[in-house]
Design goal:
- The protein has eight helices and nine strands.
- The chain is 37% helix and 24% strand.
- By secondary structure, it is an alpha+beta fold.
- The termini are far apart.
- It has two domains: 128 residues, OB fold (Dihydrolipoamide Acetyltransferase, E2P) (Beta Barrel), CATH 2.40.50; 111 residues, no CATH class.
- The strands form two sheets. A five-stranded mixed β-barrel has the order 1-2-3-5-4.
Length: 256
């Protein structure tokens, strides 16, 4: 049985039988993998309590035919993110990051950029206070990586771009089209989400800028409010369901 190694983040796990665990890993080299860790709840030598949510690991696993469950053989902990685990708000933010990548990523489809993004935001969450700006930035980048990026460059009907629309009081986003509509064309689609040209420019800028430079962008209170209305709804529309962790954000952190 071939043996493989990969950088992995634990995105979900549950107990199975008397001593095993079923674990979902998001790996840099192989994408999302589901595996069984035999004896994980008893073996301190092989797993060292490493299969908890958020853990960043160097995972060794067996994979017989490239399908079904892999068999986790062992792992080295690279980071366990202890400060995330100690703070309820950080846990909820982290759960949202993990659930989003788990829902967007297909089985065994490598997305190294998505892996690096998740790891970077977990590290930021470990080191700093949770900020709503980070949620919105993460959503924008994930949508781009997995091909769901909303088109906010220009009105999809009359083709006027944001520069031509900058003097208008508002533009609109169509969930069904995934595109921008100006006020003159907005009567032709429903449902629509109202936003300012400034917010549309901000989302476009974060989508297009090299990842290490996105922290230079700043959200005004208006941009936060409008992007909070737009991005989670668009993600839910694209996935066909609302993420469970999004509900938790709304319940425990009504103003994330």
């Amino acid at each position: 049985m071939p043996v493989f190694a990969a950088d992995a983040i634990v995105v979900h796990s549950f107990n199975y039988g008397e001593s095993d665990k079923i674990v979902t890993f998001f790996t840099r080299e192989f994408g999302k993998l589901k595996g069984i860790a035999k004896g994980a709840r008893k073996s301190k030598k092989r797993f060292q309590n490493a299969l908890a949510l958020f853990s960043h690991l160097r995972l060794v696993f067996f994979d017989r035919e490239g399908m079904g469950l892999v068999r986790a053989q062992g792992c080295d902990i690279l980071s366990s993110f202890p400060k995330i685990r100690e703070n309820l708000r950080k846990i909820i933010y982290g759960n949202y990051f993990l659930e989003m990548v788990s829902e967007m990523a297909g089985e065994r489809e490598a997305h190294p950029e998505a892996f690096d993004l998740v790891l970077s935001f977990l590290r930021t969450l470990e080191e700093t206070e949770p900020l709503e700006e980070h949620l919105r930035m993460f959503e924008i980048r994930m949508l781009s990586i997995f091909g769901y990026r909303p088109n906010l460059k220009k009105c999809s009907l009359c083709n006027r771009d944001l520069e031509a629309l900058k003097e208008t009081p508002a533009v609109f986003f169509s969930l069904e089209r995934g595109t921008l509509l100006c006020s003159g064309c907005s009567r032709s689609a429903d449902p629509l989400i109202r936003l300012s040209v400034g917010t549309a420019r901000l989302i476009e800028g974060i989508s297009e800028t090299e990842f290490p430079k996105i922290n230079r962008f700043r959200f005004t209170p208006q941009a936060l409010s409008e992007s909070r209305e737009l991005l989670p709804r668009f993600i839910s529309y694209q996935l066909g369901k609302e993420l469970k962790s999004l509900k938790a954000l709304g319940t425990i952190c009504p103003n994330p």
